[in-house]
Structures are given as C-alpha cells and as structure tokens.
Amino acid sequence: xxxxxxxxxxxxxxxxxxxxxxxxxxxxxxxxxxxxxxxxxxxxxxxxxxxxxxxxxxxxxxxxxxxxxxxxxxxxxxxxxxxxxxxxxxxxxxxxxxxxxxxxxxxxxxxxxxxxxxxxxxxxxxxxxxxxxxxx
Length: 136
What we know:
With 136 residues, this protein is mainly α.
C-alpha cells in the first residue's frame, strides 16, 4: 500500500473522532436552538391565563422552563458574559419566586406571581439570541 493511501485511510478513520467534538459554530447553533426552546417555554409560562390556570398547568410550564435553563446553562458555546448572566439572573429569579410559593398556592396565584419573572426571562433570552445572532 502506498504511503498516500495509508495516510488517506488513517485520516479517514480519524474523522469520526473529530466529528464528535462540536465546532464553535456547532456549539453556538445548539445554544441558539436551546435558547429558542427556553424562550418558547418562558413565553408559555407567562402566557398562562391566571383566571383559569390550574396548579398542574403552572407546575408543568415551570418545569419546562427549569429544564430549558438547565440545558442552556450546560452549553459549551462561548457567549457574552453579560448576556449569560442576565439569563441566569432571570432564571434564578423565576426559581426563587417558584420556591417561595406556599404549598397551598392556587394555579391562579402561581401564574400571577410567576408571570413577571417569566417575562424577564423571555426578555433576557431574546437579548442573548440577538447577541449570538441566532437565526429566526
């Protein structure tokens, strides 16, 4: 086997190992996708109608946001520290509000209290997406 063919085969065999490492642009694209989902979840939470929201609906919407933030928080993409801190702060504010709700809180009360925090999170995510130049 010629040296050129051996080199080509060895590079070709190594390619899948390199493909497993996300490039910075792939990491940024994934972060944009994760931010889109987080924003969608925050919008759904803030859009709950306090007059008719059940406690289970509010809890599910909150858990969706919580899971979305956990995903975003684990991102390996490089993004503006101020934007990341703004999203983190808004997510922490939402968590603090949720954790402060008494056990006997109704869906109406929970939706009313969480709405401003969900709106802050939505705004922070929107700003981060703009800074990252996320598509859409």
